Amino acid sequence: MKKYIYAETFYFPYEVKGPGYLEVNNGTFGSFHTEKPEDGKVIDYSGKQIAPGLVDTHIHGFKGYDVMDNDVEGLSIIAKGIWQGGVTSFLPTTLTASTELLNEVCQTVGEHADSLEGAKIRGIFLEGPFFNEKYKGAQNPKYMEDPSIEKLAKWQELSQGHVKKIAIAPERKGSLEFIDYATKNNIRTAIAHTDATFDDCEVAVEHGANIFVHTYNGMRGLHHREPGVVGAAMSLKDVFSELICDGHHVHPVAAKVVMDAHGREKTMFVTDCMRGGGMGEGDSMLGEFPVEIKDGAARLKSNGSLAGSVLELIQAVQNVVKWGIATPQEAIQMASRVPAESVHIDDVCGLIKEGYAADFIVLDPNLQLEKTYMDGEIVYEK
C-alpha cells in the first residue's frame, strides 16, 4: 500500500528539503511532494526530521557479541541491536586472528548475510591481519604477516563474494601487488595499523587503496618533515578518511582539522564498536584481550590502550553537531552516504532516493533517534 511520510525536514543526499511528504511504496522510496497527496495514507511526523538509515562500515560487535565469535545467533543480535543507533546497513568487521578462524568467520557471514534479521549485512570488512606490529593497537601481533593474495582469494570464496573491504599496512612486502588484486576484484583496500610514510601511502593510493581507517589512531602521525599516514589521510584526494567521533579517540579540534583539510564529502564516521557496545560499564573482551568499559570508553586492562569503542553511530552525528564542527546535514551524510560510497554500496543504501529501499530514521529537533525503519516498516522505537 502506498503511504507518505510527513515531516518538517528531510535529509536528501545533497540538500535538505521540507516540510513535505515522502512517498513509500512497497518498501521503497518514491517521490517527494511539498503538497499533500490526494491518495494513500499519511504518517504524520510533524516537527520531526527524516534521515537515511545510517551505514556503519567498521563495527566489530554489540550487545555482548563479537563477529569473531563465529556465532550466527550473536551476529543476528548485533544486527538487531544496532537499529537503536540508527544503523540499517553495516559491514561485520573482523580482527587480526588465525587464518583458520578468519576462514570460519568469512564462511559463516557469507552463508547467513542475506537471511539474518536485523540491519542489512552489505559485506565484510577484514581489519587485518596484514598489519605492522608497531601500531598493533588492540590487535594481536602474533598473527600479523605480509599481505597474501592467496588468503584474500580464499576468504572471498568462503564468504560467497561478501568481502568488500580489507585493511593493510602498505609498507609490508607485497602490498602493491595485493592492492592491485583487491582492486581488480572489487574489494576496497584500506590503510591501517601502519608505520607507513607519506610516500608509501601515496603509492598505495595510486594502486587503488581508498580508505584511511580510524584516522589518527593506529598509524604514523603527522610531522612537518614527514607527513606520515595522518598527513596522507588529510591531503590525498579521492580517498576516504574514517573518524571515530566518540570524544575519546579523536579530539573535536583534530576531527575538524581532518574535515576541513580533506573535506566533509570524503570524511566518514564509523563506530569501531566492540562487544561491550550497548552493555553499560564493566568488564568485556576484545578478541583475546580483557577490556574495561568505563566513562564511555573501552580500554585494554593490560596497558589502558583504547580497544575499539562503545559508540553508536547516531551519537557520532550528535557529537560533531554539538561540538560545532559540522551541520546536521553534513553529519548525517558522513554517517550514511559517504561511508556507503567508500565501499561502493551507495547504489543500494545510504541515501533517501527514489527506488532505494525505504531504510530511514526519525529524529527529533535535537537529532535524538525516535524510530528506525527498514523497507518502510518500523523495526525500532525508542
Question: Would you write up a description of this structure?
Answer:
This protein folds into two domains: 2-51 and 353-381, Roll (Urease, subunit C, domain 1), CATH 2.30.40.10; 54-342, TIM Barrel (Alpha-Beta Barrel), CATH 3.20.20. Helix 2 (99-112) packs parallel to helix 3 (149-158). The chain is globular. It is built from ten helices and 22 strands. By secondary structure, the protein is of the alpha/beta class. The protein starts with a strand and ends with a strand. Strands 1, 2, 3, 4, 5, 20, 21 and 22 form an eight-stranded mixed sheet that branches. The chain is 25% helix and 29% strand. It has helices at 72-81, 99-112, 149-158, 175-184, 198-207, 228-235, 252-262, 313-322, 328-334, 337-342, and strands spanning 2-11, 16-17, 20-25, 28-33, 41-52, 54-59, 61-62, 65-66, 87-92, 120-121, 124-130, 163-168, 188-191, 211-212, 240-243, 267-269, 282-286, 289-294, 297-300, 360-363, 369-374, 377-381.
Q: Summed up, what is this model?
A:
With 382 residues, the chain is an alpha/beta fold. The protein is built from 10 helices and 22 strands. Strands 1, 2, 3, 4, 5, 20, 21 and 22 form an 8-stranded mixed beta sheet that branches. Strands 11-12-13-14-15-16 form a 6-stranded parallel beta sheet. It has a 3-stranded parallel beta sheet with strand order 6-9-10.
